[in-house]
């Protein structure tokens, strides 16, 4: 069919390439009407142009619904508050933010509210969050600079005395010349000194505040209630507490309400409610990708312009403007919009629930194994059991072969490659015409479109236009954008499919996913520069497909999936001969053909008839002469034998070097026009190294290209002629023993100075096993310039085929280019025999070294080693776990066959519920409290698995001791390490599976922490065993191995010693230190090997210089001491349980030992930490009384143990030094006793000042008493002589209060508090520092922005709501 018969042009979203206009001409209402498309993506902007109205019929809403399937926007709404609007004093409630929430008239009749809260930044796409943060910071700076300027002005114009102002400062005062001298000092100077110092200090603090600025974002309160129709939520979008004019929002599907987040974000949202009101889902998009994809598939613009004239919308509309969209967010904002198993499976369930016909998934990741794992199985169920066709992108990892990822490599979806037409090149990319006018632009696959075959021989199915100008979210601050990728080709094909379904339904044909896929594949047309590895069967053809489906509907086997595999090649879905070792083997293969029936567990009679009646007489046809297959086969249901087989034979002896593609297709002998009912793809690679030898070193591929074997019989030189749209490939068998290849690129001919082509180099060395190409490939862009040679290195595997693929980047310049590539193979023969080994070099805890050996079998090589350890791996086991059912989004529906069977039997079906297990991992960070350690958690056993994971999903969160979430992590991409200070932390790992027993067996799943070392630990490399086995020895003349040139065929012993340097104190026995051994620093990427050292137990030997204290010298406790300690311990246990009994016991012990300092310390803890008796009305006054009792009991004059005068004399004048204490036991005991008394005194005085400050903050009459308490405390207490961080925190807050209340020094108070925030580790008491800071800010003019910023910081660092997993 000629796609260009219709004269319409669609520059924005390509349509003529796929024949849509021809389809519309024949089927006028075939624009997707009546078809529902599920867009599984980042989510969509419900208010984006072309998507915020109706379908093309002008009535049906464009969006069916919008669901967040990730849980990213879930808010806990389980807390319930009573409410009475009629009570004037009760027209407001206190929200979780602490703000007073004022209700509007909409709250009348509501007796109780569910309350929750969410941080604004938790709802925003990351790009929008960055913009909003930037805009808020700019506004903050404006206010802060005004405050700084005002403070500076106050300082500049501070009067020197009551009659005189400073001269010469621009104020223009009369009489003062440059030579006029000011008096050296005056009474006014002294009077203003304190004020001047305060202003100078305030300026200093304001500048520090700006330097440490952080924006935690506002916390938005939420109230929710249920009326007689549905749930309603009201969100405090402005974070103001005023909801009087707010409009309650119902779930989107109820009244189609949408809202817009504030603070300049312009992010559209809707809501959903789950778990009987316990969970509110605020649904926003996680990026612009999903809206763009939805626009390509089904955007529908108004047919009238703003001037009332008819607008030409064909160019703007999506492929299927009549289709409806179900927006399903599967990109999790917590992971930067990466998809999760939770999101994918929930989205497939939702698509079935809403009755979708088609699904588009423009996402993908690397895959280890096809058709394997929970997510993969649910995709298969969506197609075969639930009757939905899934379109997915091939991926953007081309142009080399075998670059398909998941789900593009799965069997069930329709995988779509990206095609670009000449019109798209010129209209979307403004591509320059070729310099040679006789060679016009040609349509082709995009260079980045991922290619087949998969390691088992599978291909993309079809291709579609891979670029579009389509709507994007309003928060991007532009209406449309031009994107390209297979993410764009998939929704284009999906939209075309919607139009096809719309057309065939006009003919009364109800087409299922198998029939649709068969129609698309059999009618697709190879276009432009034919590339089956990227295009599959070719470019989708809308009209041809619709006509095919109508004419073949109802024929035997037309809606039946037929699986084809090669049993002897591990059930491969095709034949892929890539490596030379296979070329000399047998070329006969058995092919298994198995019809796939979707029947109920207890077959109905109609299903039995389908099995018994299937009998297809098939003609088998090979597309190439070098493939021989039987002429025909008769296909039955084959249930008895689990499939039918036939054999084929390949004759590859005369095939030229390069890649060759063929198929064996099965055609209905009675109806050949139906096309293939199944097809087996065959790919054979003949390496170019196979046609060169020492006898015939040069082989010409054509007039311009050749392959030359160099004189050493090892290296190669090749020429490439690069043309627009055509990848140029060379396949090289890697010599035995080679470990890496060096690729050198240069221009083959003189190039014009006006052109500098950009060329993509893509090298894939290995495609066997389960290794994704992304794990071992090399991808580089080379800018071709005459006289400039570029050098790259890639790992290779001995005996296997390295593909070297070069392609001209036509987006820049489509003019041809000539390239010469020189390939050198190298080896040090140290690497394990697998390309990427999971078995690194390991130094065990006791072995001290690891033994290696380097050989040079290919050529002379340089050994220039670097060996170091950079991180520590710590394994954690769960401390707790819990399993529960998921919510209503987590119910897997039964198959359509089971539903039909249930209807036939008048019975019901049941859903399969998915379970959730949350594992808790607790750990602590030790070491220097001032130095943070970068930490990255992961779950190695489940990492790098998504579509092929054994579980439905894995997601984890890392929290500090305040339950603040610091970061999230998933299953595919590592997160950036988080810097953690000394403290306690917790990891929550979410695992999901429909079988509870599976989760129960995984309750001990280990988690790993990767902790970065402050500095790399060097591991020396020696060529002598005795040096490596004694790494602790020094000054024995040893010399580590440096640069060595190894001649070809030589051998070098290598010994890697463990580090001689001491480990950081926080390293624990059993930690595994990790790093690398680089054999040649100049070629690190290909000579690096992983290195591990298991940390040994800590040393227990004592330093010979230190005197050992024998057990005989230690003083044993007397029986009375032991009994007293036991009583004290018993009393400690009563502290928070029984105050009355505690007091009685305390009285007894005080009478028994009034001089006991430990008893005083315990009584102080009771006074400061125990629960206040219910009979007391004021906590602060009660604690003040209790602390004062302890203070009095401690005094020597009251028969207590502490004599402040004696302590002062001892520590001021008489404290002995270490040498004096060394041999004097009596002096040691006295020193210990005096230090114990001093420590108790400091804690008592600090406690007195703390409670006095709390009282003074509420009662001005108590300020003098507070002042006196602080003065007495300062005699003994300072930040430098306190050991406990909590005590330091109390001291900072107390001194700040004293500056604020007693000295009226606000700047001093701010300075003290800011220093405490900087110096102290993360402890819960830091919240009190922030609250005290807010009090100070509120006392000063112009600091409202500081107060508001700090309140948001408190809400973030000490969350009242937690965004978990």
Using brief descriptors, characterize the structure shown.
30 helices, 1365 residues, disordered N terminus, 27% helix, globular, alpha+beta, 7-stranded mixed β-sheet
Let me know the average pLDDT: 90
CA-based gyration radius: 38 Å
Give the beta-strand count.
60
Poorly predicted runs of 5 or more residues: 1-6, 162-188, 305-310
Helix content: 25-40%
Helix-strand makeup class: alpha+beta
Strand percentage lies at 25-35%
Tertiary shape: globular
Main beta sheet: 8 strands, mixed
How far apart are the first and last residues' alpha carbons, in Å? 52 Å
Tell me what you see in this structure:
The protein has 1365 residues and is of the alpha+beta class. Helices cover 27% and strands 25% of the residues. The protein is built from 30 helices and 60 strands. Strands 1, 2, 13, 16, 17, 18, 19 and 20 form an 8-stranded mixed sheet that branches. The chain has a 7-stranded mixed sheet with strand order 42-60-59-45-55-50-53. A 6-stranded antiparallel sheet has the order 32-33-34-41-36-39. A hairpin with a 7-residue loop joins strand 10 and strand 11 (268-274). Helix 2 runs antiparallel to helix 3 (187-211), helix 21 (1157-1169) runs antiparallel to helix 22 and helix 21 runs parallel beside helix 25 (1225-1256). The two termini are 52 Å apart. Residues 1-6, 162-188 and 305-310 have low confidence and may be disordered.
